[in-house]
Write a structure and sequence with these properties.
alpha/beta, 6-stranded parallel β-sheet, 18 helices, about 425 residues, about 50% helix
Length: about 425
Amino acid sequence: MTPLVGYLHIGSAAHGVTRYGRMLADAARASGELRVIETELAVTGDPASDRRATAAAAARLGDADVVHIQYNNRLDECIWGSRWAQLRNVAAFTRRSAAPLVVTLHDLYPPMSLRAILRRGRARLGAAGGAAAAAPRRPTGAGIVRRNGARVQRLLQPDVLTLRWLRWRAHRCVVSSHEERSRLDAFFGRSGADVIPHLVERRTLTGSAEAAKVALGLGGRRVVTLLGYIHPRKGHRLLIDAMAYLPENVTVVFAGRAEPRHAAFLEMLWTAARRGGVADRLRVTGWLDDADFERYLVATDVGVCPFETASASGSLSTWISAGAMVVASDLPLVAEYNAMEPGAIATFAPYTPDAAAAAIRPSLAAPGARAATARLGERLSPEAVMQRHAAVYRSVAHARAGARRRWGGADSARRTRDADAVAGGAA
C-alpha cells in the first residue's frame, strides 16, 4: 500500500516552520513512494472563525492515511495562534482529524516538569533543614509547590498545555535533533519521539562571489553574514562585539529583519555598533526577496550561527544547503552535525566575542573547508530525510489499518470520543 499523506500548512508562507512543512510535502511528492495531498489553514484570532476554518481543513485531509502537521512551541509566536488561541486551534483540528497524526515539534524549550520541581524542591528544603536542625521534617509537596510557584504556574501556560495535548494526541512526534529529544524527555520522561534531522534543501547558487558583492555594494569587502529574524537569542550582539577583533575589511551583514516586538533590540544593536566604532561595517538588510537573498548567500565568505541556545536551526540548514563556510557556537546540535560529517562546521567556545572572532578569522581564509559542508548537505538531502519520514508514515498507516481490521473502526471512534471529551475540558 502506498500511503496517502496529508500535509497541513498553517501560518505565513514566509515563516520558517511553515516553509519547512512545505519542503517536506515537496520531498514526499518527489520521492515517488508516497501520495500527497496538501491544504492550508489561516488563523485569525477570532475563536468562531478559527473553529470553522480548522474543521474545514481537517475535512479536506479526511481521506489521508496519515496527516503531518508542524508545531512551534512558542507562547506568543506560534503559527497556530498566540497564547490560548493555539490550544483552541490545535485541539479543534486534532479532534476533527479522521487520520492519525504525525507532528513535528519545533522551538523546544520545555519547562521543568512537576516531578522535577518536587524533586528539586525537596532537595533544597532538605539541605536548608539539615543546616537548621539535626532531624528536619520532610517537606511536603504542597510546601514545595508554594516555594516554586512561578515554575508551577509556567506548567499551566497555553504553550505548555498545547505541547502536552499534542504529546497525548499525536500517534508519532518527530524532533530534529537528539538535543530536542533530551529536552522532551526531561519534561515528559521517556518521550518516545523520533529523531529525524532537519531537511537541507538542494540549492544551486549562480554567479561569482565578487560579482554578487559588487551588486550589493560590497565590492572588495570580506562578508560575514548572520541569517534570519533578529532576535536576542541568535547572537547578534555577540557578533557586533566580535567585530572589534576582525580585520577592517570585514563587513558584518544581518540578513533579516526585526519584528515589531524586537524593534528596541535592533536599536540597541545599532547603539552598540556606534559605541564600538563599527557601525560603518555593519549592514542590516531587512526583509529580502528571493533574488537578493541568494545574492547575499553567494557574496558571503563566512556564515555565522552564534546562537546562545538552539536545538534546531533553519538558518544553519540554509548555510549547509549553500555549501558555505560556517562558524557556530559550540552547542549540542552542532556537535550532532559534526558527528555526521567531521569538520563540517567550525565552532567556538567559550561564548565570548574574542573566541567567536578567533574562529571566524581562519575561516575567512579556508574556502577548501566547504567540501565537508557540502557532504553534510548530501547526508541531509530531501531524499535522505524523506526516506526516514516515509518509514514513520508507513508505520502509522500500517498500525491504523491493523486496528481497523481488528475493531472494524470502533477503536478509531473511541479515540475520537475520548479526544472530544479531553479537548472540551482543556478548551
